[in-house]
Design goal:
With 242 residues, the protein is of the alpha+beta class. Helix 4 crosses helix 5. It has one domain: Glycosyltransferase (Alpha/alpha barrel). Strand 7 and strand 8 form a beta hairpin. The chain has a three-stranded antiparallel beta sheet with strand order 1-4-5, with no helix packed on it. It contains seven helices and 14 strands.
Length: 242
């Protein structure tokens, strides 16, 4: 975070969560959508630094925490619902190994209390911020990984996510956010992204492959598909092996 009037840094944490997440996403997706070599080079530099300094091995899995942006020194071992988009970005960038390992961690976060908290200390596996805001990111990542691997494991994960959502959040008038996943107490909001993203990714995860041609589109951060002019991506520099 910066002060837009002075340019001074207000928060010097580097991570993959809210307020920085779309930067990573759009570096890669911009490179793909526009076949832009400069954005591709920026993505390569950025993901190399993130994997070197922000990635963290803890609690038997791969996570991405908070570090000081200048020194790389760890500042917090927190990860949460908004961070769970990152397996999808890793998969889109061709790093299926890290994507799969991180989605496993996301699943562990979800099943800890039957639904994902906003923030979790992954070192202690204790909830830091317990609300659940009907967020789509963990489902998005399951969809990407299922697309690239064809592994039914990700549909089984998706079924767990969907059944939890129906059990914990469904009401007579829609779906409710949860004040704290540890108590399950519902609160009133249902954000518009629940329909635009969460339910859309559930549909795509379970739809037959011919229902949507993934390779001909790039999803923006609100899950709206932008159609590519051609299906070739950066002269084949991004490769996936199923």
């Amino acid at each position: 975070m910066i002060d837009v009037e002075t340019g001074g840094w207000l928060v010097k944490d580097s991570h993959v969560g809210g307020r920085i997440d779309s930067y990573y996403e759009y570096l890669l997706k911009g490179a793909i959508l526009f076949d832009d070599a400069e954005l591709w080079a920026m993505w390569q530099d950025t993901i190399a630094a993130v994997n070197a300094h922000v990635a963290d091995e803890a609690s038997g899995g791969l996570w991405y925490g908070h570090v000081n942006m200048n020194t790389g020194k760890q500042r917090a071992t927190v990860f949460g619902a908004l961070y769970a988009f990152f397996p999808a970005v890793l998969a889109l960038g061709g790093d299926l190994d890290r994507a799969a390992r991180l989605e496993d961690s996301c699943y562990k976060m979800w099943t800890l209390h039957g639904i994902a908290p906003e923030l979790l200390d992954y070192n202690t596996m204790k909830v830091v911020l317990g609300s659940y805001q009907l967020r789509p990111e963990i489902v998005e990542s399951a969809y990407y990984l299922y697309h690239y691997t064809g592994d039914e494991k990700y549909r089984r994960m998706g079924a767990t996510f969907f059944n939890s959502l129906v059990e914990r959040c469904k009401t007579d008038a829609g779906f409710a956010a949860i004040a704290d996943v540890r108590t399950g107490v519902q609160i009133d909001p249902m954000e518009s992204y629940f329909l635009a993203e969460t339910m859309k990714y559930f549909y795509l995860l379970f739809a037959p492959p011919q229902a949507f041609d993934f390779e001909k589109a790039v999803f923006n951060t609100e899950a709206h598909p932008i159609w590519k002019k051609n299906s070739e991506r950066l002269d084949g520099r991004i490769r996936h092996s199923n």
